[in-house]
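Duplicate of earlier report; Phosphotriesterase input re-posted below.
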Amino acid sequence: MSTVNTLRGPVDSSQIGTTLMHEHLMVRNPELERNIEHPEYDEAAIFARARASLTSLHVDKGIDTFVDLTVLGLGRDIPTVLRLTEDVPLNIVVATGYYTAKDLPTYFHTHAPDGFVGRTLDGPDVLERMFVDDVVKGVPRTDGVRAGIIKIVTDEHGITPDLDRVYRAAARAQAETGVPISTHTNVSYANGRDQQKWFVDNGVDLGRTIIGHSGDSTDLGYLKELMDNGSFIGMDRFGMEFVLDDESRIDTLVKLIEQGYTERITISHDAGFFSINTPTSWRAKHTPNWHHHRISDHVLPELRKRGVTEDQITQIMVVNPVQALTGDVEATRAVAEKVLGTGRS
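Output:
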């Protein structure tokens, strides 16, 4: 059986279970935080709240695996995550990748492959080497914690020259390590189309990609196009109602399920316990339903009311994550037979 890298080591695909595929623990900015004190960063309180919530997710809601897509550019801090998740009974999958919507920092220009303007130092592309090493050797200063997924971005600026380099590093790392690529998109620009075109043109198997934030769209034609092309879509912002209300998100999800797309969908929240960008007080006031329990407490009950079956929910929350994370058809079939009884639904 295939395994998936987690904070505590490789986990057999049969133990992945019910999974939230696009989440965050903490989104930080170490440089800013060293120079501008954030009034809401109380580590002890954040840790206590996070541990209680994560434990409840598993014990009370049946969530087994939590995929944290916080990467460089979003303040990834795996040593702090390790401390936060001590004794938390969840599989935590961490990510490699780089989060930027347009430009890379100067460091990556001077440490660039041959042919890049501004290159001053010899050697391989540090982005590609970092992505691969994070998966194969482990994230530095973490005693060998290995990433289980790659996260990259497209937003309003499209695939800029710097983003093209990030994408190339991700594509090469995916080919070398076998872990999937999960993306950030802005549905106002239908970024999923550009991402898929780039992936196809550069030899990336769309079956190993998850087009993120697709659930911000209610355009069924666009969403079905992404899935028909072979990618999973991430309907991964339940509770983020300042972008799109949950009623619309649920309605779109139900329509896609009714039209036979259950096997290409993952769901999640894109929520976190602390973000320097959208502080806790702002979230509490403007988007109170944006938390990691929203799917369990509200979305799944609503799906059941609308006729979505338990097998369809299990397909989306258990079987699809195994396929997305491992790319192993046999492992996925074995999990499907175990949890659905008759294989793929």
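Residues 3-340 form a domain with the TIM Barrel fold (CATH 3.20.20.140).

Merging into the original ticket.
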